[in-house]
Write a structure and sequence with these properties.
This protein has 287 residues and is an alpha+beta fold. Among the domains are: 131 residues, Immunoglobulin-like (Sandwich), CATH 2.60.40; 67 residues, no CATH class. The protein contains three helices and 15 strands. A hairpin with a 2-residue loop joins strand 1 and strand 2. The protein is rod-shaped and about 155 Å long. The termini are far apart.
């Protein structure tokens, strides 16, 4: 296999071999080794285009850094496609790199290679598989690669955005909690403010407060109940409970006791043999 040396210097293509002539029948037998003078080529996906007449073939290059040279930064090797050596004439060559953002680097068109007619030899055999990928197929492949890169980027951005939203929501919730805590006024006897539901109170999902507890009786009611209990004790075999209710199964005692001696004359009075029970007014008790 014949290898032809090319150089890319200041984006111009320069022949680096004394003999740059290809034989028309040397199908699949020739390759090009190219040296690049600038490291910026390593930052781009690079393609090489070979053209002769109406035949144009574009192929991708795999660049590698040149570590043992101060003059050259990158290199690559590619086989000359058979489509451009099937007839006599000059081969046009160019190198181009384009990244996902549309930035590109490109050389001027050069004609360092030339195909000459073969002598009296057997022609090479045309490959049986598919032709070398053309520029349109390469463009499609490059487009699909760009789509895949874009999808990867979108996925990464969605993940980062989700993390950012979660972080912002956490900050907002924390700030709201802090603001509520700072602005909350606790209710007092003289100040309107917030209260917590304590014992004896219930609150439903609609925020309605209720209680099942009975009101506590005041001192006057307690005194009245005490007198009723005393009356029940002396007159009946029963008594009143703490809520003022008469215990069941009351039986009248047979021993007569002067009523005036067992009532206080205020909440319970006796007049003409009748007992009267005076409730304390609502204004005094709130009942």
């Amino acid at each position: 296999m014949q290898t032809y040396e090319l150089k890319v210097v200041n984006r111009d293509i320069v022949a680096n071999s004394e003999d740059m002539s290809l034989v028309r029948t040397s199908i699949g037998m020739d390759q090009v080794h190219v040296l690049f003078d600038s490291p910026e080529w390593l930052d781009f996906p690079v393609k090489v285009t070979f053209a002769q007449g109406d035949d144009i073939v574009t192929q991708g290059l795999v660049l590698s850094a040149v570590s043992n040279s101060d003059e050259w930064s990158a290199e690559a090797t590619v086989t000359v496609p058979y489509e451009v050596i099937d007839m006599v004439g000059k081969i046009r060559v160019t190198f181009q790199g384009t990244d996902a953002n549309g930035n590109h680097i490109i050389t001027a068109y050069g004609t360092p290679l030339e195909v000459e007619e073969a002598g009296d030899v057997v022609d090479g055999t045309m490959p049986a598989d598919a032709p070398t990928i053309n520029e349109w197929q390469q463009a499609y492949a490059d487009a699909m690669a760009a789509v895949n890169r874009a999808q990867t980027l979108v996925t990464e951005l969605e993940s980062r955005l989700s993390d950012m939203v979660a972080g912002v929501e956490g900050d907002i919730n924390e700030t709201i909690s802090e603001r509520i805590a700072e602005s909350t006024v606790v209710a007092t006897d003289s100040t309107l403010g917030s209260v917590m539901v304590g014992s004896g109170l219930n609150i439903n999902s609609a925020g309605v407060l209720s209680t099942t507890s009975r009101y506590e009786i005041g001192a006057e009611q307690a005194a009245a109940i005490a007198n009723l209990s005393a009356l029940a004790y002396y007159c009946f075999d029963t008594s009143f409970d703490d809520d003022g209710d008469l215990e069941p199964t009351a039986t009248l005692k047979t021993t007569a006791i002067p009523l005036e001696s067992i009532v206080d004359g205020e909440t319970i009075t006796v007049s003409e043999g009748k007992l009267s029970f005076a409730m304390v007014s609502a204004d005094e008790t709130g009942y």
